[in-house]
Amino acid sequence: MTTPPVPLRAWYLVGGRLPLKYRDWVFHQATKPTWLAWFVVRAFLQVLPLTALITLALVWGLGSPLPLALACGSLGLVVGVYFAVSYAIESTDHRMTKYGYPRASASTFRKERNTETDQERERRYNEAWRQQD
Fold first, then answer.
1. DSSP character string of 53-86
2. Averaged pLDDT, 34-52
3. If I label 71, which of 91, 98, 123, 127 is the partner at 20 to 30 A Cα–Cα?
4. In angstroms, rounded to a whole number, what is the distance separating the alpha carbons of residues 128 and 84?
5. Rounded (to 5) percent helix, strand, coil in the chain
6. Residue 63: which pLDDT band, with cuts at 50, 70 and 90?
7. C-alpha span between 17 and 15 (Å, rounded)
8. How many CA atoms, within 13 angstroms, populate the side-chain half-sphere of residue 130?
9. pTM for this prediction
């Protein structure tokens, strides 16, 4: 697996696309256990400039009070990140198709990796909470 240099990783983190020679690294990023946390960071960094621009436009362009503009910008940021996270699985799978992977490859890989853990967790839950007749 070829790891991209730091500037390219920063570019990827803010929403940029990496060359195909880094496709294995991108797949690893999309399937590692902390993939959702990194997805949230990536979504936050993508929405932040637009919400900052809107906040500044409200203050300078429309003469809005600063606290109101900050509240509107913050709400926009929260809604933008929430919307992005709502479609995290689909978005990540779509990103993988851009790197040549089959549809739903990242989510399938994560499900297969977690199958044993999920089965063990379900077994323990059933032992603790389900009545055995």
1. HHHHIIIIIT---HHHHHHHHHHHHHHHHHHHHH
2. 95
3. 91
4. 36
5. 80, 0, 20
6. very high
7. 7
8. 8
9. 0.82
pLDDT tens-place string over residues 105-127: 999 999 988 888 888 899 999 98
Residue with the two structure tokens 């992977």: 101
Asked whether the beta carbons of 95 and 22 are under 8 A apart, the reply is no
* Residues across the chain: 133
Contacts of 9 by beta carbon, 8 Å cutoff, 6+ apart: 3
Location of structure tokens 């689909």: 90
Task: With beta carbons less than 8 A apart as the criterion, state whether 69 and 55 touch.
Answer: yes
Count the Cβ atoms, other than its own, within 10 Å of residue 73: 21
Of residues 76, 42, 41, the one with CA closest to residue 57: 76
Is 22 a residue whose pLDDT tops 70?
yes
Residue with token string 């070829």 = 2
Burial tier of 107 (Cβ tally within 10 Å: 0-12, 13-18, 19+): middle
Q: Output the pLDDT for position 1.
A: 86
